[in-house]
Amino acid sequence: MNIAIVEDEQKLATVLEQYLQQAGYQTEIYNDGDFALKQLALTTPDLILLDLMLPGTDGITICREVRKTSEVPIIMTTARVEEIDRLLGLEIGADDYICKPYSPREVVARVKAVLRRHSGTGNAGSTDQFALDEQAAIVRINGQQCELTAVELQLLKTMADSPGRIYSRSQLMTKIYTDNRVVSDRTIDSHIKKLRQRLEKYAPGTEYIHSVYGIGYKFELPDQD
Ligand code: CA
Fold first, then answer.
1. Alpha-carbon 163 to chain mean position
2. Within a domain: 124
3. Centre of ligand 1 from the C-alpha of residue 165, in Å
């Protein structure tokens, strides 16, 4: 597996490279946006770690260019958490977002998770333990039927259709309210809270909906060993 590291902070790029190589990946570092864009068109990495702010072509442009021809997994890194909310809104097609400062260990874990998801070997949004039934507005959890409200069904469906994908509150809002109703972030938080409590009853101790600090939420099924 080949990971392209597009990062202009040389020290950071080197540390990432060491951790990724220890985890068994091959790596290639690009410190400059223009060079990265050229090389990414010629090579076929298995995943791209892409910094947002770069000398030359920026991360957003690189992500969009790569997406024109390739579905290669892309993890965007940014220095500001508010940037992630904006990036989600732009729908540039990255698979995950990591905010700096990060631990290299966390980056390796996220790389593994994204690759697993991409290869289809990770948990899909539906299993024997967890399956949404839209028609009946229920979710089956470990053989039990958990009834959902219309809003909860929409929220859960949106997130469970793309496990691991981060949704901002405003993205979730547009999914559940199609009538341009103005609702606050708090409304989403309160729906999520109720939904979590409901799911918790059927699967105590299992967390399906994860908060992503400063950004929003994502759905993930627990690992089944
Ligand atoms: Ca940078």
1. 8
2. no
3. 23
User: 146 near 138, Cβ under 8 Å?
Assistant: yes
Q: What is the pLDDT of residues 145-191, one digit of tens each?
A: 999 999 999 999 999 888 888 898 888 988 887 666 667 778 899 99
217 C-alpha vs ligand 1 centroid, how far in Å?
Answer: 25
Distance 169 CA to ligand 1 centre (A): 26
**Which of residues 68, 99, 119 is at a domain's end?**
119
Tell me how far the alpha carbon of residue 13 lies from the centroid of ligand 1, in angstroms: 10
For residue 8, the CA-to-ligand 1 centroid distance in Å is: 5
Range of the domain at 208: 130-219
Shared domain check, 150 and 107: no
pTM of the full structure: 0.73
For the chain, strand residue ranges (E) read: 2-6, 26-30, 47-51, 74-78, 96-99, 130-133, 138-141, 144-147, 167-168, 209-212, 216-219
Quote the ligand 1 centre to 54 CA distance (angstroms). 5
102, 84 Cβ separation under 8 angstroms: no
